[in-house]
Amino acid sequence: SIGTGERFGLIRFGSRVDVFLPLTATPRVAVGQTAVGGETVLAEFGGIAGTPLVRIS
Q1: pLDDT, tens digit (0-9, with 9 covering 90-100), for 2-41
Q2: Which residues are catalytic?
Q3: Whole-angstrom Cα distance, residue 41 to residue 46?
Q4: Backbone angle region of 47, left / alpha / beta, with phi > 0 → left and psi within -120 to 50 → alpha
C-alpha cells in the first residue's frame, strides 16, 4: 500500500497528468496553472466547502 507523501511514479519532460478529485474537495489551483510536484496544493479535503482559491502563474 502507499502512504501519505510517498512517491509512486515519475513524470518526465513536462508530461500532462490528470488528477481526479472527489466532489467534496475544494480546488486550490486554476485550469492551466503550472503546478510543482511536492509544493503546489491542488485541493483541500474535508471541512467546510469554501470558495476555490485560485492563482494564475
Answers
A1: 788 787 777 777 677 788 888 888 888 888 888 887 888 8
A2: 15
A3: 14
A4: left
What pLDDT is recorded for position 15? 74
Please count the structural domains in the chain: 1
Tell if the pTM clears 0.85, that is, is over it: no
Residue 32's closest CA among 55, 1, 2, 7?
A: 55
Q: Which grid cell sits at 40?
A: 503546489
Can you spell out the DSSP letters for the chain? ---TT-------TT--------TT-EE-S-TT----TTT---EE-SS---PPP----
Domain that holds residue 47: 1-57
